Amino acid sequence: MDGLSCIDSLLLKSVSQGGKIRDILFQILENEEDVIIKHGAQSRESRRAASQGMHTSKFCLHPAGDTPSACRLFDAIVSLCIPVIVSDSIELPFEDTLDYRKFAVFVETTSAIKPGYLVSKLRALSKQRILQYQKELKEVSSAA
Q1: Which CATH number does the domain housing residue 87 bear?
Q2: CB–CB of 11/36 below 8 Å?
């Protein structure tokens, strides 16, 4: 798999009142190849489109400011969409029983907002590592 196809697509769900980090990431990623940005409010149709996007994406972005227990994170897990968690420190749901590092990519905020950094980091992941993340996601989602 070449570097470009390793991303396939990174989904960033943009809501109208997103946080500062989400806004910066939106500006950095909006013109990147293989990045899908979904806009919308919390309507049923918007959630359905986001869910479909997760099922067809390899990575789903979860920037700082998202509520850790937001349905988006759980939707990504059951969609086998590798969560990319952008935060310097975050408490995740069930972290006492789940080892998120086995199935999620963590990126410090200061690094993620550097143009080109996030996409390069994800493109650098090997096909084998991506498959390992997805295998772990399957195990976690089937246990839920």
Answers
A1: 3.40.50.2000
A2: yes
Residue span of the structural domain in which 54 resides = 3-143
pLDDT one-digit tens code per residue, 11-52: 555 443 347 888 888 899 988 888 887 655 566 766 666 667
Q: Which residues contact 58 (CB under 8 A, 6 or more apart)?
A: 6, 7, 8, 9, 10, 81, 82, 130
Yes or no: say if 79 and 56 are a contact pair by the CB < 8 Å rule: no
pTM for the model: 0.80
What's the chain look like in SS3?
CCHHHHHCCEEEEEECCCCHHHHHHHHHHCCCCCEEEEEECCCHHHHHHHHHHHHCCCEEEEECCCCCCCHHHHHHHHCCCEEEEECCCCCCCCCCCCCHHHCCEEECHHHHCCCCHHHHHHHCCCHHHHHHHHHHHHHHHHHC
